[in-house]
């Protein structure tokens, strides 16, 4: 995105120009065109490129710094921070990831995270879930059951099911993860759902629910792990990895 693209956005309030600049630079960072450790172009160059003032550029850089993407040093310039500093839960960063070629890598990290945490969350849900939380899991299952080949409806139910599972853990650290990772769940489920067999996938989720309802923590953790392994295989198949 350059001054030509910005010209189209100039009809918007000037106070929002920094968002357009931040989006362009953020996309380049997340997409790897500006690599970790790279210095971004100096202010005068960015002003010329985007046709904006220094104030707009500084506001854009400040915004990206707040997301963990950039840091500015006196007399050094502004450089791209390591990915460990990035706020991957930020909605803008998530949007830029979806547009990048690195979405596959992000999903691999997501599956590794879920494999470490979700079985434990299921086990805790088997121990702690309230009747109301069991109803929420069952309601999500019903949405999935009715979906059949309606992928949008299936994804809606799938996200609701895993969200309800984390909440049903009633763990102060696990439960909030449901909403924090909702957008990544949606991205993952969209891929895995395009390679799914309705009855087989539904049964895997039903097995999780039945284990939680039976108050069987060991079984709940086991069947969630099986479900995750199958979902990982489905995503890899869609991406041509298997």
From TrEMBL:
<dbReference type="GO" id="GO:0003677">
    <property type="term" value="F:DNA binding"/>
</dbReference>
<dbReference type="InterPro" id="IPR036388">
    <property type="entry name" value="WH-like_DNA-bd_sf"/>
</dbReference>
<dbReference type="InterPro" id="IPR036390">
    <property type="entry name" value="WH_DNA-bd_sf"/>
</dbReference>
<protein>
    <submittedName>
        <fullName>DNA-binding transcriptional regulator, FadR family</fullName>
    </submittedName>
</protein>
<keyword id="KW-0804">Transcription</keyword>
<feature type="domain" description="HTH gntR-type">
    <location>
        <begin position="15"/>
        <end position="83"/>
    </location>
</feature>
<keyword id="KW-0805">Transcription regulation</keyword>
<dbReference type="InterPro" id="IPR000524">
    <property type="entry name" value="Tscrpt_reg_HTH_GntR"/>
</dbReference>
<dbReference type="InterPro" id="IPR008920">
    <property type="entry name" value="TF_FadR/GntR_C"/>
</dbReference>
<dbReference type="Pfam" id="PF00392">
    <property type="entry name" value="GntR"/>
</dbReference>
<dbReference type="InterPro" id="IPR011711">
    <property type="entry name" value="GntR_C"/>
</dbReference>
<keyword id="KW-0238">DNA-binding</keyword>
<dbReference type="Pfam" id="PF07729">
    <property type="entry name" value="FCD"/>
</dbReference>
<dbReference type="GO" id="GO:0003700">
    <property type="term" value="F:DNA-binding transcription factor activity"/>
</dbReference>
């Amino acid at each position: 995105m350059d001054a030509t693209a910005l010209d189209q956005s100039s009809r918007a309030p000037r106070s929002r120009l920094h968002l357009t600049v931040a989006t362009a630079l953020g996309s380049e960072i997340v997409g790897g065109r500006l690599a970790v450790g790279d210095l971004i172009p100096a202010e005068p160059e960015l002003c010329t490129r985007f046709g904006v003032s220094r104030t707009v550029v500084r506001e854009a850089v400040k915004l990206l710094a707040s997301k963990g993407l950039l840091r500015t040093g006196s007399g050094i310039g502004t450089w791209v921070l390591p990915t460990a500093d990035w706020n991957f839960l930020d909605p803008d960063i998530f949007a830029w990831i979806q547009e990048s070629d690195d979405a596959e890598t992000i999903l691999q990290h997501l599956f590794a995270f879920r494999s470490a945490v979700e079985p434990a969350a299921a086990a805790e849900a088997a121990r702690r879930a309230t009747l109301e939380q069991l109803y929420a899991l069952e309601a999500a299952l019903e949405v999935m059951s009715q979906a059949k080949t309606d992928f949008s409806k299936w994804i809606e139910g799938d996200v609701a099911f895993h969200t309800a599972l984390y909440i049903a853990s009633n763990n102060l650290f696990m439960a909030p993860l449901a909403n924090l990772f909702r957008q990544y769940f949606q991205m993952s489920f969209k891929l895995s759902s395009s390679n799914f067999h309705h009855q087989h996938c539904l049964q895997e989720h039903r097995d999780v629910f039945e284990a939680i309802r039976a108050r069987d923590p060991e079984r709940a953790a086991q069947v969630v792990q099986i479900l995750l392994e199958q979902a990982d295989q489905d995503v890899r198949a869609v991406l041509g990895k298997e």
